[in-house]
Write a structure and sequence with these properties.
The protein is built from 7 helices and no strands. By secondary structure, the protein is an all-alpha fold. Helix 1 crosses helix 4, helix 3 crosses helix 7 and helix 6 packs across helix 7.
């Protein structure tokens, strides 16, 4: 249900973990650095949840249900799919989309500040995300850290 909503907002988290940075450094990642990454990752997850709630409120304030917004959104993204949206629904969708796009710079700034508050630069966070994405042992180490931080 939120898949297209997340895509439409271009939220930083998706960009960071989905990108393949060509400048990734060596696979040597210390436990301290991995802990900083985990803290930043958790922070970004919380920010993402808050942003989703804000986006849901925007959609609902425009007069659409989230499910209907997603249906219209998918139809507007797929040139082979015909939309059954009314002109009024299309206007509500456009208004909500514009408002969410206007949120983007503030969301990105807040995400970068959140990363930096955990002791990493944004660039290093991206590098670590890429290295972790390509290294299963690092993924396991990260998962262990995340599980411990959740008390499991």
């Amino acid at each position: 249900m939120f898949k297209s909503l997340k895509l439409k907002t271009l939220f930083l988290f998706v960009t960071v973990l989905g990108s393949v940075a060509s400048f990734a450094q060596e696979n040597e990642v210390s436990d301290a650095e991995l802990n900083k990454f985990a803290d930043a990752y958790i922070n970004m997850q919380m920010q993402n949840q808050e942003a989703q709630q804000e986006m849901i409120a925007i959609i609902q304030n425009e007069g659409l249900k989230v499910e209907r917004f997603s249906e219209i959104d998918q139809a507007t993204m797929d040139p082979n799919k015909e939309s059954d949206a009314t002109p009024a629904e299309l206007k509500m969708h456009a208004n909500a989309t514009d408002k969410m796009k206007k949120m983007q710079p503030a969301l990105e700034k807040k995400a970068i500040e959140g990363i930096e508050s955990k002791g990493l630069t944004f660039e290093r966070f991206q590098e670590l995300a890429t290295v972790i994405q390509q290294d299963q042992s690092l993924q396991q180490r990260l998962q262990d850290i995340l599980m411990k931080s959740q008390g499991q």
